[in-house]
Amino acid sequence: MLELRLVQGSLLKKVLESVKDLVNDANFDCSATGFSLQAMDSSHVALVALLLRSEGFEHYRCDRNLSMGMNLNNMAKMLKCAGNDDIVTIKADDGGDTVTFMFESPTQDKIADFEMKLMDIDSEHLGIPEAEFQAIVRMPSAEFARICKDLSSIGDTVVISVTKEGVKFSTRGDIGTANIVCRQNTTVDKPEDATVIEMQEPVSLTFALRYMNSFTKATPLSNQVTISLSSELPVVVEYKVAEMGYIRFYLAPKLEE
Amino acid sequence: RGVQLNITEFYRST
Questions:
Q1: What is the CA radius of gyration of chain A?
Q2: pLDDT for res A21
Q3: CA-based nearest residue in chain B for residue A249
Q4: How distant is the Cα of B1 from the closest Cα of chain A, in angstroms?
Q5: What 3-state DSSP class applies to A153?
Q6: Across the interface, which of A125, A127, A255 has its CB nearest the CB of B2?
Q7: pLDDT at A8 exceeding the cut of 80
Q8: Rounded mean pLDDT of B1-14?
Q9: pLDDT for A256
């Protein structure tokens, strides 16, 4: 028996909006530690890893480890029917072939049950070792989303370079070039407006903007985004999910000729 | 332009 009750149901709504365009079908894994997902996009260029820790749920019952295959578009359609202030409960029977999403209005005067068929998805699970990064940039998520959006109107790849000057986002296309430099800025009123750059050594990598723009759909989840770079590894773009977890996007670099 | 690498070139399936 699985029963996960999330008072801040809007978090789950936002999580689905963040991943439904990148990944079609995925297995949600439920264990004592939490509710997680790891899936690659269809071209195997990007990977998303989600973790919602059990402590973040008001009620978390997971009798046995369970893996539930779901079509993320259909799941998003059902979660769209939940109000932003609704309590969302995910329920499933062990060995069952459906999952139920229950939405309760804050005043408990409206209760909705949406039942969805589960799918058999044989997904490849990748081992992602903890890594040391050459540079880690923490910045306002809206700022990062704006940069990716603006640059994608000029070119289709972005070179992200971190030097002691700051972090530079560059692109070039048929109409010209664009360079945006963000400097460290910790003298801000609100901590979420800060840009913090930890650089072990300078690094510069090239990525497809199409994927970066897809990742920024997670912007509503968190005021901040963390971008971790290392020249031998995919970039990791991470958005925290309230105090209960995170959504991490991994993107393999491009080799410029 | 340029060669897009795959994520599976960096992380092995478990």
A1: 19
A2: 95
A3: B7
A4: 7
A5: coil
A6: A255
A7: yes
A8: 92
A9: 80
